[in-house]
Amino acid sequence: MYEVGYEWLNHSITPLDGHKVDQNPRVMVGGPDCKHPYSASILNISAMSFGSLSKNAILALNGGAKLGNFAHNTGEGGLSSYHLEPGGDIIWQIGTGYFGCRNRQGGFNAEKFAERAGNPSVKMIELKLSQGAKPGHGGILPAKKVTPEIAEIRHVEIGKDVISPPYHTVFKTPVEMMQFIGKLRELSGGKPIGFKLCVGSKAQFLAICKAMVKTGILADFITVDGGEGGTGAAPLEFSNYVGMPLRDALAFVHDALNGFSLRRHIRIIASGKVSTGFEIIKNIALGADMCNCARRHDACAGLYTGPGVHYKYMSYRSCYAR
Predict the structure, then answer these.
(1) How far apart are CA 228 and CA 237, in angstroms?
(2) What is the mean pLDDT of the chain?
(3) What is the pLDDT of residues 286-296, one digit of tens each?
(4) Which CATH superfamily is domain 26-135+169-320 in?
(5) Is it the case that residue 168 has pLDDT exceeding 80?
(6) Domain assignments of the chain as residue spans, ordered by start
(7) For the chain, how far is it from start to end, CA to CA, in angstroms?
(8) Which residue has the higher pLDDT, 310 or 123?
(9) What sign has the CA pseudo-torsion 252, 255, 261, 267?
(10) Closest C-alpha among 281, 311, 283 to residue 299
(11) Whole-prediction pTM
């Protein structure tokens, strides 16, 4: 308790009556150009892709989201039938590989995107710029893991390495990025569109803010992924030493949006080792509106059970049926 950096919450000598406090707080996501705003839980499931997780894991996670009335982020690996089967709310993440909405050359396909984005279970779309575990690195799915099922979901060729570039090919500048976000909003029928990033250069984030002001096209939400975020596939140097930690990044993004008079229109989602109620409150105090969590949801689904990892839908069900 007396170590440097110890954190705590200050209590009140006049606490509220717990029976009169809203036990299910929600956050409305959707700016002035959004036609279908989404009432989100303050805690949701972080991005984890089908391919890195099994079909049973995806079924368990989305089943838990359905039972708990919160959202499940697909990760950049595409939107599969396993995400949709349980009926939980979906945040569809679009990464640099444009999986599930790509053409044969690996670029963005508007028709495929519109078809998938129109699904009623898809409540929001998240454009992934980078992630805290390996910002600026990209990724690869080895050919031996590209099964016919994964190839169909991601719209890639069977038995070939699948590359996620470290950058987007559809846009190169902040202005072009905001124009693309505007296009995604139009193609989705007006659903909330946001982006996810791990903050690196502050000047680059400020350039995105300037682009929003210049174009008049705003993101509905920004997911701030801390440099401490986890993954199963990242070089040690990237996972531990690249990217701004969540605490500093949240405060910076919140202040930057306020400085450009954008904060009231844009929701901030905190992502990165959010595993306790205290951490949710801390992140909200630092500027977040809501949080994403992976580890705790994984554990509840039975994903971390020792060397012989297995997945149990019922374990997830029991957690959220209490």
Answers:
(1) 12
(2) 88
(3) 999 999 998 65
(4) Aldolase class I (3.20.20.70)
(5) yes
(6) 26-135+169-320
(7) 32
(8) 123
(9) positive
(10) 311
(11) 0.89
